[in-house]
Amino acid sequence: MATSETPVSIPVGETPVSGVYARPENPLATMVVAHGAGAGMEHPFLLGFTRALNDDGVATLRFNFPYREAGRKFPDRPPAAIAAWRAAMDFAAAESHGEPVWAAGKSFGGRMASMAVAEGMPAAGLVYLGYPLHPPGRPEKLRDEHLYGLTLPMLFLQGTRDPFATPELLETVVSRIGATAALQWLEGGGHSFEVAGLKRSADQIGASLAEPAAAFLAAHH
After folding, report:
1. Do residues 59 and 51 make contact, with C-beta atoms less than 8 angstroms apart?
2. 68 backbone dihedrals φ, ψ, rounded to 5°
């Protein structure tokens, strides 16, 4: 049976952002999920991911960043995005019954979550749905420095053909982070985990990532 979804308003400074909260019975944990730079929280990829997590017994809160809420195209600068992350995590923690609260995000959303944690935001763990390690074609511009001080469990779910993360570079980063970080490759996957020649809708792709995410969460419960 599908878990009911509740629209919520999350206060971020003076201006609230929209969210959708879903809580199955006796959840193992809560996963707060942020969107990528080019789409909001209603993107089918995120719907598929969060609904499949609900089926796996994980509560979810997906939310919009302020720029998306305001209808702007250009993503928020880190301070504004981190403030939104903190507010969303606070909201999820207040709704929880003491279960752990994790942070997950697609590309930009996951990177901002890791930066928020590096600046002190509490989280039980992090799940990256395609970490944007560098801009496409610019492997020298790594976005990795803040990751090395993080000691919480982290799962990198990444497509082998993602132009935002050269496989050898990401493997080096994850091994340098240490034993708390795990990397799971999705063969042939692009930045949105699309695979050439494999017909899957965005919500099906998102749902397929819920199983490894839920398994990692359960292993670190």
Report:
1. no
2. -70, -40
Closest Cα partner for 159 from 127, 206, 191, 135?
Answer: 191
Residue type, 220: H
CB 65, CB 96: distance < 8 Å: no
CB 96 within 8 A of CB 59: yes
The whole-angstrom separation of Cα 104 and Cα 129 is 7
* Dist CA 129 CA 140 (whole Å): 22
The CA distances from residue 159 to 48, 96, 132, 147, 163, in Å, are: 18, 32, 11, 20, 9
pLDDT single digits (tens) 13-60: 888 999 999 999 999 999 999 999 999 999 999 999 999 999 999 999
Instruction: Check residue 107 and report its DSSP letter.
Output: T
Query: Residue 10 in contact with residue 63, Cβ under 8 Å?
Result: yes
Which amino acid belongs to residue 89?
M
* Single pTM value for the model: 0.98
Query: Which strands form 58-63's sheet, in the order they lie side by side?
Result: 5-12, 15-22, 58-63, 29-34, 101-106, 126-129, 154-159, 181-186
